[in-house]
Design a protein that fits this description.
The chain has about 280 residues and is α+β, with helices and mostly antiparallel strands. Helices cover about 25% and strands about 30% of the residues. It has a seven-stranded antiparallel beta sheet. The longest helix is centred in the middle third of the chain and has 19 residues, at about 160-175. The radius of gyration is 18 Å and the shape is globular.
Length: about 280
Amino acid sequence: MCRLFGFRSVILSQVHQSLVQADNALEVQSREHPHGWGVAYYVRNSPHIIKSTSAALEDKIFKKVSGVVSSQTVLGHIRKATIGETNILNTHPFQYGHWTFAHNGNIKNFDKHREKIIEHIPEYFQKFILGTTDSETLFYFLLSKISKDINLSAEEINIEEFTNIINEAINELIEIVGDLNFDEDAPPTENFVSFIITNGNLMLAFNGGKKLYYSTYKNKCLDRDTCSSYSPECEAPTKTGFVNHLIFSSEPLSGDNIWIDLGPKEILGIDYKMKIFKKTLD
């Protein structure tokens, strides 16, 4: 399966450590996930996306991108293909307007269920589905549900409202494709829909069967004495409901961050105010 990385912070930060230098950085994980990579980073709320069909470990562009990217919002993906050939159209992250999306999983019997899923996607969105992956179709399925209640161009989206919409969308998807699988030893052909979605201000992740971890604080921030945004939430669990950074990763990364297991069926998100919200799929 694929590997995901998501980063949201109140300050501009480089992600070279997470993408390249950590003991199990995305670049290292690409040894077992060789079917391409993609990085989306936001500049003034606009996503810039760089993709390649090469393995990140062998791609000089990946190292170059990770070394220069400095952003408050980053979404990274390392692909191990299950559905769809290896080409740039099938490489994550996928983008629509300000929104970007990356998926780690599989929709079981996608060929059988695709048309039923497409029925839930308005024709306006359907024309933007350019590849053949279940992941891209899932992205537009979610956007279709979100757009019914939320202006996709809005920057100030309430995280609790957004989470509830995602909750409903996932349940609708399950009605079509069947229950999600949370058995770590299950074959990759089963139903898994772990993902990260962001518009640059809001970021949300869902554990739909493939492991995800998150971090909102460190043992000790090396910049605590010089950072103008330093707060107690940088080195301890939040007591206010607000955080200064949120990181998602398919595997805990080495370093000072404290990693917490995002449990099965858990949805965790953060909004434009850096307010964090979590619920379990119901």
